[in-house]
Amino acid sequence: xxxxxxxxxxxxxxxxxxxxxxxxxxxxxxxxxxxxxxxxxxxxxxxxxxxxxxxxxxxxxxxxxxxxxxxxxxx
Length: 75
Known about the structure:
Blueprint: H1 6-11, E1 17-19, E2 33-35, H2 39-52, H3 55-69
Antiparallel strand pairs: 1-2
């Protein structure tokens, strides 16, 4: 997985996160949760949300990853 530094993460657009920020942080917007700037981060986001996310978060992350990379839980 590519290294994502704090500075790089803050520069990412909101579309690079599976869950948007909640309005805090620099410039009045949070960076968000589960960064998905590339496929390896998207795979990691799916694994992390499966472990720690609520059902609503799981559905949102899966949908965003599938829309962006065509990946997700197979049925």
